[in-house]
Structures are given as structure tokens and as C-alpha cells.
Amino acid sequence: MTTDEAVAGTTTPPPAGLRERKKQRTRAALVRSALELFTRQGYERTTVDEIAEAVEVSQRTFFRYFANKEEVAFASQESAECHFFAALCARPAGEAPLAALRGATLDAWGSIGGALEQLVPPELHMRMYRVIESTPSLLAVHLRRIAELEERLAREIARREGLDIDADPRPRLVVAMFGGVIRVAGKLWTEGDEDSVVTLRDLTAFHLDYVGPTLAEKWDK
Amino acid sequence: MTTDEAVAGTTTPPPAGLRERKKQRTRAALVRSALELFTRQGYERTTVDEIAEAVEVSQRTFFRYFANKEEVAFASQESAECHFFAALCARPAGEAPLAALRGATLDAWGSIGGALEQLVPPELHMRMYRVIESTPSLLAVHLRRIAELEERLAREIARREGLDIDADPRPRLVVAMFGGVIRVAGKLWTEGDEDSVVTLRDLTAFHLDYVGPTLAEKWDK
DNA sequence: TGTCAATTGTCAGACGCTGACATTAGCCTC
DNA sequence: GAGGCTAATGTCAGCGTCTGACAATTGACA
């Protein structure tokens, strides 16, 4: 469901039942409270009971919305990832693989704000990203999620190029290399003190442009 | 301590005190029992109490040797990673970055057996690798550890090339791309049913040779 | 041998997470 | 609009990971 929203950029227009709307509100409240607490006092120092209490539901209810404490921390990441995947699918068919990935990245970073603000303030999303990068257990999960996203990206690339993903290693390889570059940019951004999305976008573009020179046999100083 | 052993390939010759040797034995016993249990019945289905009981120590003692349940699962990986890092440091200074990484990989896979068997049977190490790749929580930690290793590799590459790691993105970029390729190879190996190290080494080499063609503007079919 | 310090065991408890069952509250029909 | 159906929630008990505190044990060394 979150997937569809992110891809189409719409919330289901019919208000549906009261029941359903209440569920959505509870879920959103849990996400917001959780991210607020995580960014304020840290992920580890926040207990599930605290989050539940802030929304005035029982701990058991929290675990009916999220499989575990980590999941709620990635709620807004989930949207962002879907958004990026959609951006790749929207790139023109003629584009070469790496160019398409590059284009999708810039497109996605340009329009991420709108896709997110339904769920959480973009600024909170950005602060949470920093928390993820600096919390070992969350970073681990984040890297696994990225790996899963990369698998989907590779399949899309294979589709675009009309290749069999199990026979040709190149789709997975571009994506893996691309992913590596993205991570370097993201990590550097986290370590800096510039908060804006634009900075991150430019940093990413800059690093992507360095792929060629980096693979040259001899590096010039 | 494990680091030094792996790098130098030696166990501290003086037997040290009885106390110290007993500690080493307990530690090794915990690792072996843990990996045995993990590979036999799965990581999640193995409790810390079980591991402790198999070695006849208290649960509390287990947690004095390992910070958490995950750590013991990566004991042999730790050796392998150090071994690989040492292999990179041993590559001739003139070699280009990517070539050095490639060479180090093949060197390391060639000599990994000897470095490991002090701790666990290499065959157990390989089976454990599969468990890691197929257990979500372990995979996550594994990816984070790889990321940490990549940081060290990048610093070594920067040193070799006489570059400032914070000023030039290329060291981190090669390593990131390289890491991506390695992961693709490793994952494919896990999915196959060939168990041997040689297969993994060849698969890795094959994928590394594909980096060039993969980055070509247009892929030929 | 006796003292000192390191290692281990025991115990209590916080926290994440789950199954089972009772309770509440939206929905739908008559 | 009363009553029955079902989904959502709360309550409770319990397992597993992990930690702090304190007591008991055991190697080291004078």
C-alpha cells in the first residue's frame, strides 16, 4: 500500500471506512512519535513502551503495526526507496543503464519532498537518516534494505536491456557499483553539517561523475 | 588480538599463563559449538543458553566473551577479513588500485584455509557463510562489517597512492565498486550448490573481469 | 601458604517480542 | 436502531537477549 502511494503520489481518494482511517492515523502517529523520539534521544535509548505511550496505545498494538522496533524507524525510508525505484522506471527507454540510474537519482532527490510530507515532515526524515547512519544496528538493517532495493533495480535494468538477469552479470554489477557510489556520497553527507537535500543531491552527482576517472588504470594526482 | 594473529599468521609462541590458555580454549570452544549449532539447526533457533550449556559455562560467561549473540557468529569471518586486508597490504606498490584489490582477493582466497583452521574447520566456516547470507539479521550485520572493512581498504588504497582520503573520493569509490562486485559473486555462490572455495574464487575473478564491459555506454548483447 | 586479582556463577531485572484470550468498537443487516 | 459479526485493541503470561551487582572460585606470585 505504501508502495502504491509513493509510486502514484496519491492517497486513495475514497475516505474508506472510519475504521480504516483510524488505522492510518494510528500508524502515522506511531511513526511520527517514534522518529521524534529517536532523533531527540537516540534509537537505543527509546523504548517501545515510550512510543506506544506517546500515542496512547498498548505495546502490543505497536507490534501489530510494526514487526519490530526497527521497522518503524524505516517507515519514511520505505517511501523514499519506492520513490527512487519509480523514478528509474520512468526514465526513457533509450538511456544507458548507468545514465538511467544517475538520472533517476537526481529526479528522485528533486521530488522527494512532496512524496514524503504526507507521512512525516521532510526535515524529520533527514534527521532520521542521520540517526540511521550513526546507529550501528540501524545502519546494518539499512544496508540490507539497500541490498534488497538493488536487487529490484537490477531486475529493472535487465528488463530495460532485454537481458536475462540470471544469465548476464552486468545488471547486478552496474547496480552494485552504483550503490557503492551512492553510499559513499550519503556517508560523506552525514558527516558534514549541511542539512539540505540539495547538498546531498549535488554531492551524489559529483561522485557519480567520478566513476570513470576512478576506474582508470593510473590515477593522476 | 585476533587481528595480529591473522596478519602475522602466528599464535603467540610463549604459552603464556595457564589462565590465558584456558581463556583461549573456552573462547574457541564457544565459537566451535556456536557455529556447529547455528549451521545444524539455524541461527534463530539456537539460544545462547544452548551454546553455553554445550561448553558447560554459564550464560553470563558467554556474554563476557562476546558482546552479543551475533558476535560469535562472525568469529571466523573476522579472521577472514583480517586475512584479506593483510593480503592487500602485501601487494606490490606499483600496482593500480583495482588490480591490487583483485590480486589481494585471489591471494586471500588461495590461502584462507591455513589462516582459519587454527580456529574452526574451513568447511564449517564455509557452511557458516551460507547461514549468514540466508539469515536476514546476520546478513544485515555482515553488510555493516563489510562496510567497515571497506573503509579500512580505502585508507590503505589512499596510502598506496599517496592521496588524502578526505580530499579525494577515488579511494572510497574504487573500494565501494569493488565491494559491490564481490557481494554479487558471493551471493551467487551462496545460491548455487558448489561448496568449494575454488568455485567462489573463480566466480569472483570472473565478475571482477566484467567491470569494464559493464560500464561501457552501450552493452552488446 | 597466604594474599591479590582475575574469572566465573548466581540472581534480579530491563527490554524486545509473541501467543492466547478477553474486551471494545466499527460495520452491516433486518 | 437493536443485535450480531468481525476487526482492532488491551491484558497477561512467558521466552530470549543482554546487563549490573555481588558472591564464590581459581590461577598468579610473593
From TrEMBL, chains A, B:
Organism: Streptomyces rugosispiralis
Top-level taxon in the UniProt lineage: Bacteria
Chain residue ranges for the region called Disordered: 1-23
DNA-binding region residue numbers: 47-66
Keyword field: Coiled coil, DNA-binding, Transcription, Transcription regulation
Coiled-coil residue windows: 139-166
Protein's name in the database: TetR family transcriptional regulator
Pfam family, one: TetR_N
Alphabetical list of InterPro entries matching this protein: DNA-bd_HTH_TetR-type_CS, Homeodomain-like_sf, HTH-type_TetR-like_transc_reg, HTH_TetR, MftR_C
Limits of the HTH tetR-type domain: 24-84
